[in-house]
Amino acid sequence: MIIYNVRRRFLAKKEDAETYRKAERLRPAFTLKIEVGSRDDLAALLNALCNPPAGAGADFPADEALIDRAQVPGPTSIPACVPDFLLTDEQRRQRNAERRTA
What we know:
Blueprint: E1 2-6, E2 9-11, H1 14-23, E3 31-35, H2 39-50, H3 64-69, H4 89-101
Antiparallel strand pairs: 1-2, 1-3
């Protein structure tokens, strides 16, 4: 499998990667071709993306505003994209109550 990377964006097609690179006004060297030939290669790629860079330490400084924006809503919050027929009766009542107050 081949994927392309331009800065921190991954794209499936070379044409899309080149279009994005040009839109960002970057040099051709910013388009990277990544070949994933096996599950081991994929695991190595994902591990490299998830692990902090060497020498960066375990802690990355972040201000309070960034941390607050990163909070994931609790299980009581139901995304609007979830259709009503997938909800339990309690969740449906909660959604209807939220719609009335909005």
